[in-house]
Design a protein that fits this description.
By secondary structure, the protein is of the alpha+beta class. α2 runs antiparallel to α3 and α5 packs across α8 (170-177). Its main location: membrane. This is HEDGEHOG-INTERACTING PROTEIN. Its cofactor is pyrroloquinoline quinone.
Length: 696
Amino acid sequence: MGAFTAISFLFLNFLLLLLPGPSSSLPLCIDSRAPFTLNTSLSFCPYNGSSCCNTTHDLQLQKQFQAMNISDAACASLLKSILCARCDPYSAELFTVSSVPRPVAVLCNSSVSANSSQSSQAQNDFCSNVWDTCQNVNILNSPFSPSLRGQTGLPANSSSNKLTAAWQSKADFCDAFGGASMDGSLCYDGEPVTLNNTETSSSPRGLCLEKIGNGSYLSMVAHPDGSNRAFFSSQQGKIWLATIPEQGSGKTLGFDESTPFVDLTDEVYFNTEFGMMGMAFHPNFAQNGRFFASFNCDKVKWPGCTGRCSCNSEVNCDPSKLAPDNGAQPCQYQTVIAEYTANDTATKSLGTTAKPLEVRRIFTMGLPFTSHHGGQILFGPSDGYLYFMMGDGGGAGGDPHNFSQNKKSLLGKIMRLDVDNMPSAAEIIKLDLWGNYSIPKDNPYSEDSDLRPEIWALGLRNPWRCSFDSERPSYFMCADVGQDTYEEVDIITKGGNYGWRVYEGSNPFTPQQSPGGNTTSESISPIFPVMGYYHSDVNKKEGSASITGGYFFRSQIDPCMYGRYLYGDLYAGAMWAATETPENSGNFTSTKIPFTCGRDSPIQCTSLPGSALPSLGYIFSFGEDNGKDNFILASSGVYRVVRPSRCNYTCSKDNATAVGSPSPTSPPSSASQLHGSFRRILALFSSLLLLLLGAI
């Protein structure tokens, strides 16, 4: 009966291969048998349902993995997934190239081609990721031996089991073990293979960028007058007003770098962790000229740096017991929100400069340590209140004083302030405010008297870049930088507790130090992230990962990206597009999305050595202009997302090709498609004959 089932399956596949269609990839195991349905999930490899492994195979792979004795967790995670590719229902194709079997699955090594049958998961450069993560890690009994691949690497080094001891470079390694998903073939990207269908055909194939500026900026805010202008600010303390060119014009950002809109560098304390962290323009800026800057100051160097210390008796913290941090005394550095105004003109929206003179000090607070102080500010599109994102204050890591869960502390919180109705001096003292602002009457303290009245949400570690969806303002998205394991994005709601430091993401967290006491998981109702990624998912050349929040994509320039939330990692090696299904459900699925620069970019992009990725440097922030186009603010310059066809990416909803851009790649000829299919037909037919002979 088993032989008859296998024969039937192979014969059906044989018939299907003879039929015309966009994909000739079929589920088939390495031994040319049909995948079978598992009664229970495998304990080691992440396969359930259909698989090419039973529990015995699964145990064998686990023992093989353990024998490798890999000490690096990120590399171990990748090697485990590569070993488990043998269980994939498409393993026969993953482990065969030109009818030659391979010891390792073909590792995805380029973007999916326009005619690929494989899903967008295969768009990442998985082979490069393996090399970058594992190149200097000892791997006993490595599956990447040159002799196993039948190619020549470096001379054998018996004292080393590292990839760099066997292969000269990433290029050589990926030439041996990599491959693209194209012409109907498959490649392995670290996840079980899935194929495109009509529901995913409109998924973005990649993000096409053009470089329109060389400057390094931390924030971008569209001009409130609705024009094609936007403000850009540097961490050092300058703000520029720039004109954004039309797409396809070949022009760059229009502004004079020597003439900033305002220069606050005398007030701003700048180094790696400090500087001007945000800016916000009043919704009625075009009429009143009011704008706000969020920055850090040093009370040793500037007499205007005079805030109270956030480590105080109200939050059970004694600053005299805090040790200096990176040479700084507790609360030497402070966070400031100050109000300014554009220079007088008949129409404020036409003003192109402002004087660096404070109109009003909105907020000042001393910082206990030298990291995790957020600093972004933005106005709510529906309520007109100013939202202020504040980190947990840093320290030795793990929020040792538990500020994020302390309802009397403003650290690790998102605040919501009224800057239109100014309090009297008596009210500031009575309410114990940190500056010149009022409290919105519907802030959560009205329902929880334990909360400081400024607090809108709590339990955050270091929120880095938040945004409101321009079509659904109730979707207030904030990225929150993780500690050791997980980077997250949250939907911020009134009074929401996002778990830190009881949880990191949705994982329980145990701090190494607890001078500020602990909060039990039973005492809170945490709201877990709607999306994010583990540190092991990204290249960790710089140390650990650090998330940068973005925007819901609302531009029509890339129809396949429309409605997806775009975010990235600071170290510029990865970006993700998150899809909500069904809409308004809060259920998101994130996909790592490849990106490249168009050849007709106004400023030519440079590439990373040994990679097709543009050399962005660090992704500091994302931006959105009044036309809803999306921007990436990186250490190497300003990039704009443009029509996918300019980078030869395809989108089923996009029929236009930008003027002057390279034409999309041509589909393969019928001959090349038949050539690949014919090889599979011969292989399957041979297997069919063998099974028939064995059954007789």
